[in-house]
Amino acid sequence: MGASLPPKEANLFKLIVKSYETKQYKKGLKAADSILKKFPDHGETLSMKGLTLNCMDRKSEAYELVRLGLKNDLKSHVCWHVYGLLYRSDREYREAIKCYRNALRIDPDNIEILRDLSLLQAQMRDLSGFVETRQQLLTLKPNHRMNWIGFAVANHLNSNGSKAIEILEAYEGTLEDDYPPDNERCEHGEMLLYKISLLEECGFLDRALEELQKKESKIVDKLTYKEQQVSLLVKLGQLEEGGKLYRDLLRMNPDNYRYYEGLQKCEGLYSKTGQYSSDEIDRLEALYKSLEQEYSWSSAVKRIPLDFLKDEKFREAADDYIRPLLTKGVPSLFSDLSPLYDHPGKADILERLILELENSIRTTGGYPGRAEKEPPSTLLWTMSLLAQHFDRRGQYEIALSKIDEAIEHTPTVIDLYSVKARILKHAGDLAAAAALADEARCMDLADRYINSECVKRMLHADQVELAEKVAVLFTKDGDQHNNLHDMQCMWYELASGESYFRQSDLGRALKKFLAVEKHYLDITEDQFDFHSYCLRKMTLRSYVEMLKFQDRLHSHAYFRKAAAGAIRCYIKLQDTPPKTTADQDDEMSKLLPSQKKKLRQKQRKAEARAKKEAEVKNEEATAGNVSKSGKRHVKPVDPDPHGEKLLQVEDPLLEATKYLKLLQQNSPESLESHLLSFEVNMRKQKILLAFQAVKQLLKLDAGNPDSHRCLIRFFHKVDSMDAPMSDNEKLIWRVLEAERPTISQLDEKSLVEINNHFLEKHEDSLMHRAAFAEMLYVLDPSKKAEAIKIVEETTINTVSINETTERWKLKDCMAVHKLLGTVLIDHNAASRWKVRCADYFPYSTYFEGSQSSAMPSSAYNQIYKNNENVSGEKRSESGQSVDVPSSNGKLEIMVEAQQ
């Protein structure tokens, strides 16, 4: 570096490099300017100056200088290396790799460039190139531990585990017998555990167990040692020894569910489905009774038997498990018991048990069969548990009466208000649920979880502005959007996006959904720093696990929701594009002069108001962004706060396709991925891609109403197409004709027959009947009255009033109401359905049920009127909050304390 410069300037060049590495950028710029005064065309100095400017956020100048430096000295590996670093800082990894390769053509043995290239290859998953680069680094510097480990990991990632084992063994051969020293024992132990996990992965189980036992003294992490050992023993079929080791692990941690599962495997008493014979249940019961005597303080040893016990034995075990938790007052008890509701018959047993406990506490003050009196709080938590139980079973009226009784018993328990808010949400009264959650929040303004619960309820009720005000109470400096975005608060952004979508504000909805997509991009980029860190710190097992996680990152539920939300927005944008300027001008020309004047005045006032609000926000942000040293931290201003620019796309379906491909690649098992694929491709007239989506839907769930809709709609579209004319159309037609017999649902039937057969199979299901009715109307619009009749004749054939599986779901009834009003377009039928559902869902604001907050005479509104003077909150007529409440007077204090 700087070899072509005189000694004085060469030393200055070294100072530039050192200043860059130590982040003393001004010092580096000064040295670069000194060299460039004498040698203005020196390529390497120009490049280093550009790199320094890049770190000072002067990117345009940086690129200009680096390109000029490269132009002046094309044969300098420094210039190419710097150019690669510049691209790397902008996440242009492929371009950076090209630059590094050019640098290596000039200086093929440069360690720094090879190391940087290997990091990019790991990031981009160029695994064969990664192996090659790591081998070259090892050849050049074989006495460096990191090069051996890096080469082994590269082979492992490249699906060559046996080669990775050979490399690690060769590295161990270079070590002395007394290695490692005390300061490297942890790192060496991690390397040995990584090697053993590799042996296990490659199927060398005996060898892995032998190696593990041989190197026991050198492994520091004894817990992982035991877990690895028992895993190998079980895989080798040495179940007796494995069982002993699992018991040793349980002595260390008797609440680890994985250890109990492993012990069951060793005893031959494990089933993935959870189904056991009566003999196996008896043996499991005996096993857990012996374990309970040994670990009487463990909750897991008492909870696990509830999963496999039945009838009276289940009742006895549940009774023993529930009683102490009710006495203690554990709010999460219902969440713990919730999985049992999926087991046939257990919900009924739990109901009888809890009602019996409640009755005994009310009458005798204690549990059945016990003389000791229970504290008053036991009755409180019993009623809370019953409320959640009836909520789970869809009996909202009983649930609300129980929780109201609990609140009357002890009005200061915050959890009760949260439970009631959850019940109201399930019952369909979202505004009242938000108000209850707000009341719970005001009882403890320092609790972030309750604050988040309140925000979530407000977003469900489409109270977005108020939700933002409440959410920012726990953000730095109270800055609304930037901090929530910087914190990667994805649940908030998803809920906001869904709310905006429901309100048809597509710009803001898209902005929220794409913000979540940006978080996943950032998470992908964040792995870059770990490529060198993990090799240096020897956290190899965690590193490989992290890389595998990153490879399936886009299959995560939050990304799936965000991508699906964005696609729905683009579909809606395609179906109802925003009005152009010409359309708006046409509408204006139709107005009277007085109406035009009023409209312009209204627009000017709105613009002035928005401008004033933006100025106030900027002033507040500027005032709050002054550090102790007096420097101002200027935050970037969002140029498109309402997402209006996101709506200005030429082809919404093209944008939707980008996210659709990610969904199809990473969530192929999701029905929603293929439903969206069908909708997008039908609009794009991509017949074969739409057919592919139909086939996937039928493969995943042929009985699903949406799958049936897509099948009928697709072949109805195909049958109504004109005869093929072009070669492409003829090819598509031949493919469809060849594939049609493979669809078992068709079976040489007409679409009407297929639709009728679908109804016969699912005649008791509301959503299946609705799908049949919709397709009946699509196939023959003259049968609209028959389609409506099919929907309206749906009845609930309840076997038991307590069985939630037989009850209609609120969201399904809402979907049917929209079907009647917008697809079948019969407002009278929609009104009749609304009246019927209002009786069935009395707490639903959507159907304006008699007990909902939408009705002025409801119990909620009566209570609210009585408490209106107590609360400092103002509400609109719909029951929605319009300002942040401060009912206990502590809100201002908390906000000041956070600033």
Give the arrangement of secondary structure elements.
Layout (H helix, E strand, L loop, with lengths): L6 H15 L3 H14 L4 H13 L3 H14 L4 H13 L3 H14 L4 H14 L2 H14 L4 H13 L3 H13 L11 H17 L3 H10 L7 H14 L3 H14 L4 H10 L11 H17 L5 H4 L1 H4 L2 H18 L4 H5 L8 H19 L11 H17 L3 H14 L4 H14 L2 H14 L4 H13 L3 H8 L8 H7 L3 H13 L3 H21 L3 H8 L2 H12 L5 H19 L5 H10 L2 H32 L27 H15 L4 H13 L3 H15 L3 H15 L7 H13 L11 H11 L4 H14 L4 H9 L17 H14 L3 H14 L18 H9 L23 H8 L1
- The overall strand count is 0
Shape: globular
The unreliable regions are: 627-632, 798-805, 867-882, 885-899
Query: First CA to last CA: what distance?
Result: 49 Å
Classification by helices and strands? mainly alpha
Helix content: 55-70%
Q: How would a textbook summarize the main sheet?
A: none
Describe this structure in words.
- This protein has 899 residues and is mainly alpha-helical.
- The protein is 69% helix and 0% strand.
- The chain has 47 helices and no strands.
- Helix 8 runs antiparallel to helix 9 (145-157), helix 39 runs antiparallel to helix 41 and helix 42 (766-779) runs parallel beside helix 44.
- The protein is globular.
- The chain starts with 6 loop residues before the first helix and ends with a helix.
- 35% of the residues are buried.
- Mean pLDDT is 88; it is low at 627-632, 798-805, 867-882 and 885-899.
